[in-house]
Amino acid sequence: AKGIRVAIDGPAAAGKSTVAKIVAEKSSFIYIDTGAMYRALTWKVLQNRISPEDSQSIVDLLAKTDIDLEQGKSGQRVRVDGDDVTEAIRTEQVTGSVSHIAKHPNVREQMVQRQRKLANKHDIVMDGRDIGTHVIPNAEVKVFLKASVEERARRRYDENMQKGLTTDFETLKNEIEERDRIDSNRETAPLVKADDAIALDTTDLTIDDVASSILEKVNQAI
Ligand code: C5P
User: Fold this and answer.
1) Which residue, 20, 34, 173, 189, is the most exposed by fewest CB within 10 angstroms?
2) How far apart are CA 61 and CA 214, in angstroms?
């Protein structure tokens, strides 16, 4: 059978990873979170006190960095050189720096190479910003998820509450808008819908609605 590649792109906190995990699980595909890869690199850049603007040092660092995504029983674990950084890559500090690091063309080039290798091996669901446009332009299924920034901030807020974190709603909203702004305006592989991607506005949809409609496309592609 031919491999099926599902590309899910969209702005920050649009529900991509939640939906991608469900689609992957129901289809027995491998889920690859490319945002986690950029976050893992960002974590290491900050650990090494390298400036987010120093793209050459960042590329050199990335070249000797092992980033491993694995599906454990309790969800996805992210490892950098063997260290579990699953929680560490979700801090405000990493979130606030990741877009500055992800904008460098030479950094993206190396990341995209790694992502293509991962995509070649299996049936996969990959989420990010440039999967349908650059990483896997010939993906069998391409989806672009959107939602109003208010709704995205509300979801992130609720998610944080469930983890026992109280966050300021306006701060969350500003962080999301700022990240979208940098991701959409960078020169290399900006956040944009692929012409042939299906756009889904999830503002008024449930997670299950979104997952079912993507699963329908996957079943048509098999
Ligand atoms: O998906 P997530 O919000 O965790 O991604 C974190 C950041 O990583 C994004 O804001 C973006 O700057 C970068 N990213 C990217 N290309 C991807 C995935 C993520 O530039 N394919």
Assistant:
1) 173
2) 37
